[in-house]
Structures are given as C-alpha cells and as structure tokens.
Design brief:
The protein has helices at about 15-35, 45-70, 90-100, 100-109. With about 110 residues, the chain is mainly α. The radius of gyration is 17 Å and the shape is elongated. The model has no long low-confidence stretch (mean pLDDT about 85).
Length: about 110
C-alpha cells in the first residue's frame, strides 16, 4: 500500500545520496577507529584524534549532502518510479569525498 504523504517527505528526494552518505559515515567511524588506534600515545591522544576525525568526516558528509540535495531527481516519485540502485562505487566515492571535502569545495568555486 502506498502512503499518500510519501511525496511530501524531503528525505525521499535525497534517495540514494542519503543512503550512501550514511553508509560512508559508518565506514568512516571504522576507519577513524583503526587510524586512531595506530597512533603512539595513550588513550587520551587516541580518543582526541578519533573525535577530530569523526567531526571532520561528519562535517564533510553534511556539506556534500547539502550540495548534492538540489541535484537529485525529485520528479521520480510514486509507485511506478524506478528507484536508483545503491552501488558500492557510490559508497566508496562518498567515503573518499567525506575525507577530502575541502578540496572538492575549493575546486567547485
């Protein structure tokens, strides 16, 4: 059964971009934990590095999601609309982009 209010959902317009962003952020947490655990120093140093990296990637993910929000296909709604598939390549691109997002912003200006 189709919910008549689905077309009003602003998150639905983000579609696969939102899914990729969330999966990439989960992978970023894992990568940040591994990187922080390899650093010399005590737990305090490792936890601050982990926190810094997580804040960096969250900021990057949010900035990239906001920049791509206007470029999604909003017209594709309804039960017969074809949903874009989530591909591993897209997730890896989002993961990489969430780490190097200042370079992407600088390049676009």
């Amino acid at each position: 059964m189709v919910n008549p209010h689905d077309h009003d959902d602003p998150l639905r317009a983000l579609g696969s971009a939102l899914a990729c962003a969330l999966i990439a952020q989960i992978l970023s947490v894992i990568v940040a934990a591994v990187l922080a655990s390899q650093l010399p120093g005590g737990y305090r140093v490792q936890s601050w590095v982990f926190l810094g990296v997580i804040l960096w990637t969250v900021a990057g993910t949010v900035v990239l999601l906001v920049r791509t929000a206007g470029k999604t296909n909003i017209e594709a709604s309804g039960p017969s609309a074809r949903r874009p598939r989530l591909r591993p390549r897209q997730v890896l691109l989002w993961l990489l982009s969430s780490w190097v997002w200042p370079l992407l912003l600088h390049r676009r200006r």
